[in-house]
Design brief:
Layout: E1 8-10, E2 16-20, H1 26-39, E3 43-46, H2 52-63, E4 68-71, E5 74-77, E6 92-98, H3 101-111, E7 117-122, H4 132-140, E8 144-147, E9 158-161, E10 171-175, H5 181-189, E11 196-200, H6 206-221, E12 224-226, H7 231-244, E13 245-249, H8 263-271, E14 274-278, E15 281-285, E16 294-296, H9 304-311, E17 316-321, H10 333-344, E18 347-351, E19 356-361, E20 370-372, H11 378-390, E21 394-396, H12 409-412
Parallel strand pairs: 2-13, 3-12, 6-7, 10-11, 16-17, 20-21
Antiparallel strand pairs: 1-21, 3-5, 4-5, 7-9, 8-9, 13-15, 14-15, 17-19, 18-19
Catalytic activity: 3-phosphoshikimate + phosphoenolpyruvate = 5-O-(1-carboxyvinyl)-3-phosphoshikimate + phosphate
Protein name: 3-phosphoshikimate 1-carboxyvinyltransferase
EC number: 2.5.1.19
């Protein structure tokens, strides 16, 4: 069902008690896919995520000449990039890449190793998100890149032509202030080439760089890589369970410390919820009394919308610091979440000077029924749905965009 531009009626729940499976990680998936493209040699990626970020990357791979066999959630790479360019059609290749940060940024770095000209047409807000800190190091490798900043959707956002050359340098500086995805993109695309990197302004999302290093290491040790569950997706049912009852996530049997959002399990424990790994999966139960949260958002920025929902329902003052990184996501998530919480009547205060947000939550207050037209940002949409589910329900727009990370999210709420 196409839910775009149609209101979706979210029904309130009195309790939440479910046994579910959750999606696998798109962060792991896209990293493993880039490595598969570089390696070829029948390299397999198992348990692949079915998010649109991942399917868009696979579709781009097929257009650039990569031969991939897919059986269920397993893909096998029969050839590699850039050798596969001889099997692609035309000297200028148009790629329609969706709105995924890893999809677009990882792909740009990979394509810089090829000889053909590639034109990239993303969707949504991707063309407005930062990219200069990936373009600059690629230009130092003699890659010809044109960045269209006009916003004209008929003109390629990025046009590039390699191949990247190490003639002038074997060490590159990568600025990570706005995203560590630039560093990961370069590490993955050049993983078989003796190119060194120096990361500067590494103040947020460092766990994702550690994930990249780990995926590269494991792909060299084995000819396959198995994708773990997605702890970003896990946060939504976990938050509902901690506030409203219980959830058993049957396909989650261990923490993945390389996913920044796995810290949510520790946040829930500290707050007073029960979280335990059992033979049947990860079980999360409501605590008798939940304590407010103190959290450095720069360590796991994608977790903030879920944490804000949780905080709004916990008695006391919750503190969130280092919020600036939220401005560079699919939307300005600080602005979008404060707008969302104002709509529901959540008590909060943001200090731009200190870059600190406080949310004064209540376990007794019932937030009002609302009609929400959020930004087309999957995490904002899902956070809005959590508010509605926990409280009085409502109508929610832009619900189709959850397919970016959690295609069956709204089935979970029924």
């Amino acid at each position: 069902m196409n839910l775009e531009n149609s209101p979706f009626k979210v029904q309130p729940l009195l309790t939440f008690d479910k046994e579910i499976t959750i999606p696998t990680s798109k962060s792991h998936s896209n990293r493993a896919l880039i490595l598969g493209a570089v390696r070829g040699e029948n390299f397999k990626v198992r348990n692949l995520s079915d998010s649109t970020d991942v399917t868009n990357l696979l579709n781009a791979f097929k257009k650039i000449g990569l031969k991939i066999e897919q059986s269920g959630s397993t893909v096998t790479f029969l050839n590699s990039f850039p050798d596969c360019e001889k099997d692609s059609v035309g000297n200028v290749i148009e790629l329609h890449t969706g709105d995924g940060g890893t999809t677009n940024r990882f792909l740009i770095a990979l394509l810089s190793r090829g000889k053909k000209e590639y034109q990239i047409f993303p969707t949504e807000k991707m063309s407005e998100r930062p990219i200069e800190d990936l373009i600059n190091p690629l230009k130092k490798l003699s890659v010809n890149i044109v960045h269209n900043v006009s916003g004209d959707s008929k003109t390629p956002w990025i046009t590039l032509k390699g191949p990247a050359s190490m003639y002038n340098t074997t060490k590159l500086e990568i600025d990570c202030k706005k995203s560590t995805q630039f560093a990961s993109a370069m590490m993955l695309a050049f993983s078989k080439i003796p190119l060194q990197f120096e990361f500067i302004n590494l103040h947020a999302s460092e766990a994702y760089l550690k994930m990249t290093s780990m995926v590269i290491k494991k792909s060299l040790e084995s000819n396959s890589y198995t994708i773990p569950v997605d702890f970003s997706s896990l946060g939504y049912p976990a938050a509902l369970a901690a506030l409203m009852g219980r959830v058993l996530i049957t396909n989650c049997h261990e923490l993945d410390m390389y996913q920044a959002d796995s810290v949510f399990i520790e946040v829930l424990k500290t707050s007073g919820a029960t979280c335990s790994f059992t033979a049947n999966g990860l079980e999360i139960k409501k605590g008798d009394k939940l304590n407010p949260v103190t959290f450095d958002v720069s360590t796991a920025p994608d977790l903030f919308p879920t944490l804000a929902f949780f905080a709004a329902h916990v008695d006391g003052v919750n503190h969130f610091s280092n919020m600036e990184i939220l401005k560079f996501k699919e939307s300005d998530r600080l602005q979008e979440m404060t707008n969302l919480m104002k709509t529901f009547g959540v008590e909060m205060h943001y200090s731009p000077i200190e870059d600190v947000l406080t949310i004064t939550g209540s376990s007794q207050k019932k937030y009002q029924q609302s009609t929400i037209k959020p930004a087309r940002d999957h995490r904002i949409v899902m956070a809005a749905a959590l508010f509605m589910t926990k409280n009085a329900g409502g109508e929610l727009f832009e619900t189709d965009c959850v397919e970016k990370s959690f295609p069956k999210f709204f089935t979970l709420l029924k």
